[in-house]
């Protein structure tokens, strides 16, 4: 706690531009006594892939959940394509063009592959309330084929699938939701090298097409440098770094984190020493 | 299960049990595969158990069981339970439960009686009563989902509240159900069309049950409501993250459950032409309805269940009660056998469920 980062201390301040599809200013969020986000400002250009980095518990997932309408920020404002953006719900955010792939995937074990892929945007027979299962199956198959994920059957519950398969279903659901902005929280977490490569290839392809803008949380810096146009690093609830990928390196990113750990450790030591001193003083009193 | 029935591969034909015709190994394997899929379907095992039970009663009781009089007598043993169980299925898939259906079941006919006595037209009185029951569901849902009390406790509360309220307004007196009297003069022996639609007709409750089961089956497997119900029960957080309106889904299912309980209360009162303030009977009714849902393959922890299973579960309990009664089993033994049968049916269900999960057939 002794070592607080002052906002703006070593940040290149986010540069807003006319072609920002998403702009976020001074977002804060606390959960009871725990502050997840102190003061986060970021922006996303059309067709850009922004890598969001940060230590565990830095607030990355909280930021994603605010952007996708699942949680509401305590303070700060957001703009989507120049309009004030205040999503009422996940569904509302989706209608406005922002979709998300959660870290926990948000898959329903008991539902089938295609039911999961169309959860909350189910296809129906025209105006009738009945689900068009054939159409959903067909479109799910197309989407999965497109990524290169081969599942023999789409009507089995997803509980039966491997971690990597589940993750690719969640990613496919986000990518093919016709969103303008896609938020990906650790899209490669449960994947093997082969499946991970498929997803990275998909993201590269989407970037080339240029229609989709992406904010992506990743842990692997090599992946970040390979797939992202720009990186933002969240440290202690603020954006501590904002750089184009070409201007940074694995070494620099690692150094920031190592530095963060070093400072955290020295802070912990200082606190320990202070406590020891207090204990000593207490003993002396007796 | 041997591997020979897994598919129609040629390797299956030489070793398969019944020798298939030459050149048609597929046609032999297909029915077996279908049979296997049926047996391990969620409600498949209880269908088999019910059929076996029926065959046993037909065999031992012959005409006493198969007579049309007995088959008609069987309807009230299962139709009301089927309707109640369908409501419970939706809530139990959500991972919730409604214990208040017994209270709603008692309350609805008394409200109907009071309204009819106040010269409200019978049909309107029925509709208002059922709407009031729907409102009980709203209250159950709001207390559970917004206040955040477990549905077991919430509905236990509304159960006692409604039972008590019913005893107060009825002065614990049995009354005659309005509209259930024979139409016209004493010489006329026919039921009014109102009474025959709302429970008194021989097939009335059966038809209500079949219609409700059919509609709710379609709702569960063919609509967003059904998919979202399963989603909420299977993983509430993931469902919310995906955008499912969890509260709305659960409250709606509470409304359905209470509505059906109200319908059954009115149907039963007009069928028996009397309204009886009997909380203990209502309690048994509640638990039997939950038993039907569970026997039919619905999980108490949520996430899975079928409407067809609830119907079959109700049929199982109905056949069992009716058959035991005709066999002249002492009334004291009835509950004893009933309990054992439920345990046995559930044990089979659970075993088959394990086989299902291993086999990879959905």
Overview of this protein structure:
By secondary structure, chain A is an alpha/beta fold. Chain A folds into two domains: 20-248, P-loop containing nucleotide triphosphate hydrolases (Rossmann fold), CATH 3.40.50.300; 249-286. Chain A has eight helices and ten strands. Chain A has a six-stranded mixed β-sheet, sandwiched between helices. Chain A has a four-stranded antiparallel β-sheet with strand order 2-1-4-5, covered by helices on one side. In chain A, helix 4 packs across helix 5. The longest helix of chain A is centred in the C-terminal third of the chain and has 36 residues, at 250-285. Chain A is elongated, with a radius of gyration of 21 Å. Residues 1-14 of chain A have low confidence and may be disordered. By secondary structure, chain B is mainly alpha-helical. The radius of gyration of chain B is 23 Å and the shape is globular. In chain B, 74% of the residues lie in helices and 1% in strands. Chain B has a single domain, classed as ABC transporter involved in vitamin B12 uptake, BtuC. Mean pLDDT of chain B is 84; it is low at 1-27 and 183-188. Chain B has a two-stranded antiparallel ribbon with strand order 1-2. At the A-B interface, helix 2 of A face helix 11 and helix 12 of B.
How would the blueprint of this fold be written?
The complex is a heterodimer of chains A (286) and B (362).
Chain A: E1 20-31, E2 34-45, E3 49-54, H1 60-67, E4 75-80, E5 83-84, H2 90-96, E6 98-101, H3 113-117, H4 133-147, H5 163-175, E7 181-185, H6 193-209, E8 213-217, H7 221-227, E9 230-235, E10 238-244, H8 250-285
Parallel strand pairs in A: 3-8, 3-9, 6-7, 7-8
Antiparallel strand pairs in A: 1-2, 1-4, 4-5, 9-10
Helix pairs in contact in A: 4-5
Chain B: H1 12-15, H2 25-39, H3 44-61, H4 63-66, H5 68-93, H6 101-117, H7 122-147, H8 151-170, E1 175-176, H9 193-200, H10 204-222, H11 224-234, H12 236-242, H13 246-271, E2 274-275, H14 279-295, H15 307-326, H16 331-359
Antiparallel strand pairs in B: 1-2
Helix pairs in contact in B: 3-15, 5-10, 5-11, 5-13, 5-14, 5-15, 6-7, 6-8, 6-13, 6-14, 7-8, 7-13, 9-13, 10-11, 11-12, 11-13, 14-15, 15-16
């Amino acid at each position: 706690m002794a070592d607080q980062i002052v906002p703006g201390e070593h940040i290149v301040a986010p540069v807003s531009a006319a072609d920002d599809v998403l702009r976020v200013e001074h977002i804060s969020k606390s959960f009871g006594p725990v502050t997840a986000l102190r003061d986060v400002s970021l922006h996303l250009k059309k067709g850009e892939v922004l890598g969001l980095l940060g230590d565990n518990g830095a607030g990355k997932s909280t930021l994603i959940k605010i952007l996708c309408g699942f949680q509401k920020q305590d303070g700060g404002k957001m703009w989507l394509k120049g309009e004030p953006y205040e999503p009422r719900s996940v569904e509302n955010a989706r209608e406005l063009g922002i979709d998300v792939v959660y870290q926990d995937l948000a898959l329903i074990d008991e539902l089938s592959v295609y039911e999961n892929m169309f959860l909350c945007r189910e296809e129906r027979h025209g105006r009738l309330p009945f689900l068009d299962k054939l159409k959903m199956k067909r479109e799910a198959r197309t989407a999965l084929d497109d990524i290169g994920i081969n599942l023999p059957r789409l009507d089995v519950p997803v509980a039966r699938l491997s971690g990597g398969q589940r993750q690719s279903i969640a990613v496919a659901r986000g990518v093919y939701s016709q969103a303008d902005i896609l938020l990906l929280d650790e899209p490669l977490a449960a994947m093997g090298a082969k499946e991970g490569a498929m997803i990275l290839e998909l993201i590269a392809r989407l970037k080339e097409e240029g229609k989709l803008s992406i904010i992506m949380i990743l842990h692997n810096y090599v992946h970040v440098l390979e797939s992202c146009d720009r990186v933002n690093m969240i440290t202690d609830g603020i954006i501590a770094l904002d750089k184009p990928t070409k201007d940074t390196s694995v070494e620099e990113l690692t150094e920031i984190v190592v530095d963060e750990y070093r400072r955290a450790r020295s802070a912990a030591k200082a606190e320990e020493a202070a406590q020891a001193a207090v204990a000593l003083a207490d003993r002396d009193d007796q | 299960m041997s591997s020979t029935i897994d598919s129609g591969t040629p390797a299956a034909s030489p070793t398969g049990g019944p020798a298939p015709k030459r050149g048609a190994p597929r046609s032999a394997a297909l029915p077996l595969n279908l049979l296997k899929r049926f047996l391990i379907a969620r409600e498949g095992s209880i269908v088999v158990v019910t059929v076996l039970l029926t065959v046993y009663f037909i065999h031992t009781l012959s005409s006493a069981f198969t007579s049309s009089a007995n088959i008609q007598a069987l309807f009230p043993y299962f139709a009301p339970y089927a309707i109640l169980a369908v409501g419970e299925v939706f809530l139990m898939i959500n991972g919730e439960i409604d214990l208040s259906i017994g209270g709603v079941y008692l309350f609805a006919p008394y409200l109907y009686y009071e309204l009819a006595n106040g010269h409200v037209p019978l049909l309107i009185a029925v509709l208002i009563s059922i709407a009031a029951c729907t409102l009980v569901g709203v209250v159950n849902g709001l207390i559970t989902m917004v206040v955040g009390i477990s549905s077991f406790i919430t509905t236990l509360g509304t159960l006692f509240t409604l039972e008590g309220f019913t005893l107060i307004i009825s002065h614990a007196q049995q009354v005659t159900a309005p509209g259930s009297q024979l139409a016209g003069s004493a010489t006329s022996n026919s039921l009014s069309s109102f009474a025959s639609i709302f429970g008194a007709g021989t097939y009335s409750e059966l038809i209500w049950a079949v219609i409700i089961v059919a509609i709710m089956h379609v709702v569960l497997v063919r609509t967003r409501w059904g998919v979202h119900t399963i989603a909420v029960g299977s993983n509430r957080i993931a469902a919310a993250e995906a955008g499912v309106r969890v509260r709305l889904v659960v409250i709606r299912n509470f409304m359905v459950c209470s509505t059906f309980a109200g319908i059954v209360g009115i149907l039963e009162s007009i069928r028996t032409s009397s309204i009886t303030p009997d909380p203990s009977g209502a309690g048994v009714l509640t638990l039997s309805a939950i038993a039907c849902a569970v026997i039919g393959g619905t999980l108490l922890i949520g996430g899975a269940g079928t409407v067809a299973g609830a119907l079959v579960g109700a049929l199982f309990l109905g056949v069992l009660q009716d058959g035991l009664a005709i066999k002249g089993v002492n009334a004291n033994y009835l509950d004893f056998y009933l309990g054992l049968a439920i345990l046995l049916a559930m044990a089979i269900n659970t075993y088959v469920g394990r086989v299902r999960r291993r086999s990879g057939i959905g």
